[in-house]
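This section describes the prediction task in plain terms. A model, or a person checking by hand, is given the sequence of a single protein chain and must write out its three-dimensional structure as a string of tokens. No templates, partner chains or ligands are provided. The sample shown here is typical of the held-out split.
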Amino acid sequence: MIVKIYTTPICVYCKAAKQLFNEHNIQYQEINVIEDRNALNEMVARSGQLGVPVIEIDNNIVVGFNKPKIMELLNLK
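The expected answer:
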């Protein structure tokens, strides 16, 4: 499973998503869109959104901290 999270340092919902991943031992790649403008452009192109978090789970995009959808895509209960 490939998990990416596009974040900013001050995003509360990004922190919540990362905490969820950590609690379930889910490996993820964190991409700070403040520091990486190319990643920001990629995030917007993939999601159509400028806000974070944008979470990609095996090519499925979740905008925001939609815990039920994230849990479903991660096959967690």
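For orientation: Helices lie at 12-23, 37-47, 67-73.
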